[in-house]
Amino acid sequence: MDLKLRLLSLSIAQLCCISSTFAETDQPSTTLATIKIKAQQAADQTYKVDSSSSATRSEIALKDTPQSVRVVTQKVIEDIGATRLIEALDLAGGVTRANNFGGQGLTGFNLRGFTSGEFYRNGFPINRGYP
Question: Domain residues of the chain, as ranges?
């Protein structure tokens, strides 16, 4: 008898579900008004750089440089308030900090997976005599 009661209650529940499906009314479609958006790009708000002289030591377009180059401009450094090299290089793609295990004060960097052993300023090494 318990089985008959279960079957009856399942049948009633199923009929309720089916009837609610067919009870849904069709809504008329609504067409929204067209929205026009106009914008202008401000010329002085960009961080884009077209050329660099550090990759090849000559003024050349970045697209013609035979290697991957990421330029962090002075405007970017000023906007983020970076006061240290580490803070500026956080924005350079492919540059990660390396663990120097409590070394001589210079933080090491990995450049696209390769270790950087030399630090240069104006073309001269500043790594204080150790590799």
Answer: 48-93, 94-131
